[in-house]
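To whoever is covering the structure queue this week,

Two jobs came back overnight. Logging them here so there's a record in the thread.

Job A:
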Amino acid sequence: MQPELQHQGGNWITFWFEALCIIGSLILILVHCWSIWQQRDLWSPWLVLSVIIAWPAADLVSGLVHWTADTWGSEEFPILGPRFIRPFRVHHTTPTSFLKCNFLDTNGDTCLISIPVLLCFYWIPVHSTAGVFALTFGVAFCIFAIPTNQIHQWAHMSQPPRWIQILQKTGLILTKEEHARHHKLPYSGHYCITNGFCNRWLEAFGFFRFLEKIITSLTGVPPRLEETRQFNDRKK
C-alpha cells in the first residue's frame, strides 16, 4: 500500500503570495464597486437581474473548473499540475485533509485566478446602462466565485459555524448532502461547489458526459485516465 496522500502546505513565500492575492482581489472588487457607485444615475432594476444571474453563473463555472481538474490533465504538468490539478485529485483520496488547510491556502488560488479577470473589467465602458449592467454582473460573479474553496471546505466540516449552517440550509451555499453526491466513485458528477444549484440540471441533461465524449472523440484520451491509474496503483 502506498502512503496516504495529503494536501501540501506552503512555505513563507507561498503564505505571503496568497495573502497578496487575497488583498489584491479585494482591492480590485472595491475599486469596481466604487466605479458602479459613481454611475448610479444609470442604475436600473436590471442591475438586480445581473446579480441574480451571477449566482448560478459562478456555480456553473465552479463545476467546469472542478470537472476539468478531475477529468483531464496530469499532476505532472508544470505549475498547473501541482497547484490546481493535484489538490482536486488528493481530495478524492483524503477528503478530510482539506480541513487542515488554513484560510490563505484555502482561498489564495481562487483570488489569484480572479485578479486577471477583475483587471479585464477595466475595459468595460461604464458610461452606459449596458456597461454598468456588465460590470455589476462581473463583480457579483467574482464575489460569489472567489469564496468557492471556502464554501467547499465548510461543506466537509462536521460542525461549521452556525451562520454557515443557516446559509447551507437555505441553499445559498453548497450543502454537505449535495457535495456528498460527488464523493462517490468514480467522482464523475455533481461538480458544482459554489452552491450546487446547477448540479441537478447538468446531471439530468448529461452535460459533462456529453463534453467528455466530444473531447475523447477529438483527442482519443479517455476521461479520468490518470486518476483511474493512480487509484489502481494504490490498491496494490
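Job B:
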Amino acid sequence: MAENKTVATDRSVETYLAGVEHAGRQADALVLDALFRRVTGWQPRMWGPSIIGYGRYEYRYDSGHGGSSCATGFSPRKANMVLYVLGCEGESVPLPERLGKFKAGKSCLYLNRLADVDLAVLEQLIRDGLVDLEKRWPVFPA
C-alpha cells in the first residue's frame, strides 16, 4: 500500500510563515494562524512542505488504507490561500452564503484574500468542520 505523501514534519511553522514571499499573503497567513490557534486551542505543525495543520485525525477506509492527517489548517500558496476546514469524506459542512468570495474543493476552500470573507463566518466554519470530522474519525490535538 502506498505511503501518505503529506505527513507531519518537524519544520518550524514560524520559520515557514516568515518565508512567505508575498507580503499580503504572509499577512493573511499570520491572521489565519492566530484564528486557527484560537478556534482549535491547538499549536500548529507543518504537514508536508507547505500545510500548516492544527490537530490530527486518524482514518482507515474499508479498503484497509489508513493513516493520519491534519484535522484542519491552511496553506499560503502563490495562487491563493487554501484552507482545509471541511470534513474529508462524504458530505461536507454546508458553506454559508454569507462567507464571502471563495471557491470550494472537495475538502477545502480557496481564498484570494482574507478581506474577501467574513472572518466570523470562517471561524464558525472551522468549528463546524472539526465537529463534522469528529463524527467520522478520531481527532487529536497533535
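Note for Job B: The chain has three helices and seven strands.

Please reply-all if you pick these up so we don't duplicate work.
Q.
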